[in-house]
Structure formats: C-alpha cells, structure tokens
Amino acid sequence: MKHGRHHAESGLPIVGPLLTTTRQSRVLLFGFGILMLGDGLQSTLLGVRASLEGFPTTITGLIMSTFYVGFLAGALYSPRFVERVGHIRVFGALASVASASVLIHGVIVTPLAWSLLRLVSGFCLAGLYVVAESWLNDRASNKTRGTLLSVYMVVSYVGYAGGQLLLNAADPEGLELFILTSVLISFALVPLLLSAGPAPTFSSQSTLSLRRLYRISPLGVIGALATGMASAALFGFGPVYAESSGLSISEISFFMTAMLAGCTVLQWPIGRLSDMLDRRLVITAVTFLAAGAAIAAVSISAMSTLSLLLLVAALGGLSIPLYSLCIAHANDYLEPEQMVAASSGLVLASGVGAILGPITASLSMALLGPNGFFWWLAVIHTAMGLFALVRMVKRSARPLADQGHYAPSTPHGSPVALEAAQHVMQEDQE
After folding, report:
1. Whole-angstrom Cα distance, residue 425 to residue 84?
2. CA separation (Å) from 429 to 97, 176, 331, 387, 404?
3. pTM of the model
4. CA within 20 to 30 Å of 62's CA: 28, 199, 202, 344, which one?
C-alpha cells in the first residue's frame, strides 16, 4: 500500500490546494460553487416557506422527500442520457428545467405542485452534479485527483452555506428569492459551458449489487443508509425545525450555516483519526457523540440561540462526515478493482436513506413537537452506533496496514464524485 501521499492530498484543510489546480478546474469549480449557492438557497427557502404557508409537518416531510426520490433517480439514470447525447446538451437542458421549476414554486404554492416540482428539481440537480463532477474529474490526473477532490468538497460546503445566508436577501414570503435562485442556477451554466477544453468522454461503469456489497461490508451499507437518512433530515428538515422553534429568518440562515461550518472544520481531523485507528471504533465514537449532541440540543436549545448554534455546528461536524467514514470502511474490505463498481450501490443505500430522512423526521416532530427533530437524529445515530458495536464483535479488526486512506465524499452526491473518491482510495491499495 502507498501510504502518505494520498493521505495528504485527500484531507480538506491542505495548504494552497486551489493554487495547484489548473485554470480550467478553477473555472469549473467557480461554476459549481454558483450552482451550490442556488441549491442551498432553494432547499432552505422551501422549508421555511412551507412552514410560513402552514403546510402540515408531515406534508412538508413528504415534499422534501420527493426531492431525494428525484435526486436518486437522477444520480443513477442521468449518466445514461449523458452517454447518449453528451454533457453539454444534458447540462443545458437540465439547468433550464431546474431554473424554470424554481420559479414555478413561487407561483403555484400548493403541496401537490411542490411535491411534483421537487421531484423534477431533484432529478435535474443530480444530473447537473453528474455532468459538473465528471467534467471536473476528467481534468484531474491520478496525482492531482485527491487535491482536486478536497477543493471540490470545500467549494460544495462553502457554496451551500452561502446559499443559507442569501435567505436574508429578501422576504421568503415573496417571489424575489425564487427569482434569485433561478438566476443562480442559470448563471452557473456560463463558466461551466465556456470553460476551455472538450467535454470528457463518458462510459457506464460496471456495478456491484447492493446484496453482494452488504455481504462484503454490512457496516458500510447500513452506515450509508443511516447517514443518508440523518443528512437528509438535517438539510431537508433543519429549516422547518428552526422556523417551528420560533427562530427569525436570519437565525434560520445561521442555524443552517453553523451545521455546514462544523462539517467543514471537523471532516478532515475525523478522517485522519480514522486512518490511524480501527475505523469502526472511530465510526462508533463519532456516531454516539452525534447522538449526544442531538440529545443535548433538546434541553440546551431553549437557553439561548448561541447555544443552539454551537450544538448544531457540533452535530453537523460529527454527523455529516460519517458518510465518508462508512465509504472508507467499505473500501477497506473491497478489492481495488471493486471500489469504483461499488459506487452505485453505496449511492443507492444513501439515497434510500435520504428519502426516508425527511418523512421520518416530520413524523417525529408531529408526535413530539419541534424537539422531535433532534430526538429522531439521536435515534438514528444511536442505532447506527449499536450496529457498529455488533459488527466489531462479529468481525475482527482490519490491520491498520491494510486500511486504505480516507477521502471526503458528500452525502446524496452523484456516483461520479464517489467514484473520484474511490479512485483515490483505490490507488492507496494498489
């Protein structure tokens, strides 16, 4: 195994990573950052607006879940469209539909219309991610892929966090923020489509069935499912909880930004620690700590908004990186040639969890009130921690010398981004 080089490349807070990327990659990252601004604003805006419109909590959960149904379908099937008609045509078509669907949200404000529109938006955004990420991955060599992936992750989180702050730009009850989101998605086309260089070649990858993947790494699959559920609850239902708890619009934007800031800060040290210890031990400790942060938020959130923001930052910093830990753990038991093929199975597990996340969070809130949001997150992480403990008893630890290196991945991302992370880990094991 090649220890050292990729470990440094795949960490998030590395020195001057953006300076080492090519001009084409920087242009692509700029366009993707704008897309993430629009995505971040849209997700939070719809959660807040649904609460302001008086949609029942369970109905809002269903609306948010339809986005992940569309997203999962787009992540799995849009590569076929790209293969048939090319990146540029698919990207242009999906961006146009995504931009238009945002505007329709602001005009037709009914649960049924929003459910259908969120389904369409999810499919389109997943397809846009597939195109943008494959373009970016094509610009990377084996030597630079880890660094470029790290920069991409930072751009993703910073862009999504910036979208939360844009919630303060206008009244969520008006049409202006829907127009702004549409403009951002449309504007993201410009740097991506005008960047120099040809579109990358694209071919379908072989797959590894979810059943076989579970036999190889039960904790990897169940972990992807659980972290998908928790992340979708955080992203999709966090704004609904915040509005239901009486936070102002600016406080809601800071609530979501704090969660993403915590993830950005903690992802790298948690990942590095997992390279130094039995990865299952790190997964177990982190998921129980996340459960503890969620339980603490139930009682401490009533004390002050600052206390709530600090706890949400801790919860996001502990919960969201768990997905990458589970991917890395699964790779520890995969042969190098199986890693890329496993991407679709892991995305599927995470996607199913994401569909369930907002629905189950809404049911918990309907039964227990706003604090049901944190109680449900505590249940998810506790159950995942207990399953990890069971796996530690049933299977002996993987020798540290046989563990691959951690590479960051985003929950609910496309198979392309996960494949890029798999390539980085694959090179470590060859």
Report:
1. 30
2. 41, 50, 9, 27, 6
3. 0.85
4. 344
